[in-house]
Amino acid sequence: MRKNITFKKLILLFLAVSLPVFLLGLFLIRQNSTAASNRTFSLIQDKVDLTAEELANLLDQLYHTAAEVAGQGNLERLANPAYFMSPYEAAKNVLQMQEQQTSIRNANPYIDNFVIYYPNRLQAYNSKKSSRPSFFEFTMDEYRQLAGEHSSADYLTVYNGKLTEVILPSFGADFLIRVDLSGAALEELLGNVFSEYDYYYRMEALDGSWQVTNLARVEGEKFMQGHTGRWAQAEMSIDDKGYECFSASLPMGDVQLDFFFSREQLFRDARAYQYLYVYFGLTVLLASSLFLLGSYAIIHRPIRMMVDAFQRISRQDYDVRITGRQGSDFMYLYQEFNHMAEELGTLIEKNYQQQLLLSRAELKQLQAQINPHFLYNAFFLLRRMIHDELYEEAGQMADTLGLYFQYITRNSQDFMPLGREYHHAMLYCEIQQLRFGDRILVETDTLPEAYQDIPVPKLMIQPILENAFNYGLRDKVDDGILRVNISEADGCLVIAIEDNGEALSEEQLIRIQNSLQDTARGIQLQEMTGMLNIQRRLDIYFRERGKSEIEGGCLKAERSSLGGLCMRICLPI
To answer: Which helix (H) or strand (E) holds 325?
Structure first.
C-alpha cells in the first residue's frame, strides 16, 4: 500500500505552482544581469568612441591651425630668397614668427613644440621655451625626409619618437611646419577618460611605431598578447586577472585606441544580480520548507494519525482513540472515529457463537459457523477510502457497516422476520458493491410486503451471497452479474441467487448438489461449509415447526441461466 499519498500529492501540487514562478524569477534575474552587463559594455564603448572622436577633432584642429599660420605673409617672406629684407626686418619677422609659434603652443596643451623649417636658410625655428634653442640647423636630406612623410590623405608621422603633424603650405611656398604632440598631455587625457574605473590604456599609431600607455613595456607586451580587435572578441589576462579590451580607431595615422578594464570591475552590477539570484533562491527554498512543514502539521499529520489508528483497529485494538485540538478541521473525523471504535469494540465483544448457544445444541453449533468473516476486509476497504480521501464514501461505508453489524450483534434472537433478514442481505450486497465497484452489477428484487413477517433462521441469505462474491465472481474483471430473484412455486417462497461466474465446472456443481442432498438427509459430513450450514439449519427449523419437508432440502443448487451457479432457497409458506 502506498504511503503518504496525500502529502506527496500536496508536494507535487506545490511544485507545479511554485516551480514555474521560481524559474521565471531566475530567468528575469538572469536577463537583468545580462542586460546590466551589456549596458555597461555599451556605455564604455560609446565613451571610447567619443574619446577617439575628440582626439580626431584635436588633431584636425591642430592641422588647420598650423595651416592658417602657414598662410601668413611673414612666413612666406622668410621662405622666399627673392624677397629682400634688411637684417633688422628679417630679425623682426623671425621674432614675430616665434611669438606666433609660442602663442599657439601655450594656447594648446597638446602641442609640445611648433617648428617651422626654411630650406633656403637651412634653419628651423622652435617655439620659445627655456629648455630648447630658438633655432637649429638641419640638412636638406633631413628636410626632404620630413617633407616626404606628408601626404594629402594623412599628415601624421613619427619624428624623434614623437607623434608629429607635418603641414606644407598649399600655395607652394618653400617651407614646412612640424607640430610635435605632447605625450604627457595625451597620457593625462587618456588617464582621465573613466574616472569611475581603474583601467589601462594604449594609444598607438603608424603600425605601432609610436605609442603611449600606462603599462610598463614588458607588461604591455604580455597584456597585448592575443588581442584580436574589438572588445567583443578581446579577452586577455594580466597577473592572472581577466580583462576586456574596448577599441576605437582614428581616420588618420592608423591610430588605434585601446582601453583595458578588469572583468571584476565590469561585472560588479552583474554580481549584484548574482547575489540577488542566490538570495531569491534561498528565499524560495525557505518559503517552500515552511510551506511543507506547515502542510505536514496541518494535513498530513492528522491523516497519518487516523491511518495509524485504523491499523491498530485492524490488529483488534479497539481501545484506540484519537485526540486533537478543539477547533481543528479534523476534529469531527476524530470524534466519528472514536465513536465508531467504541461501537465496534462493543460489537466485537458480543461473540456470535455465544448467541447461537441460546438455542438447541445442534442448532447453536451450526449457527456458530456463521460469522462475518469479511469484517476485516470491510474495515480495510474503509481504511483505504479514508486514505484516498474518499470521506463521503467512507462515511456511507461506515453507516452501512454499522447497520450490518447491528443486525448481527445486537439481537440475541435465533430467528428473525424475513423482511429484516432480507434487508440485512441487501446491506451485505451494498458493502460488496462498494468493494468491487463497477466490476460487478447487483440486481435484486423487492421482497413483497406479504412475506415481510415470515420467521426464518437468522443469517440464511448472506452466506450464499458471500459464496457468490468470493468464488463465483472473484475472477471477474468486469461485466460481473449477481442476481437475486423472488418468486412463488409449489407453495414455497423461492429466493434464487445466481451469478455469471465462469469458474464452476460440471464436476464441482455435481459435488455441491450431492453434498446438499446428503445434508438434507441428515448425513454428517466431514466438512461443514456455509451452504451446508444453511441447509442443515433450514431442515431443523422447518421440521421442528411441523412444516412439510421439501424433497432434496430447502437449499438447492443448479446451473444458472447466466452461466454460473444458482442457489435456490425454498421456504414453505
So the answer is: none
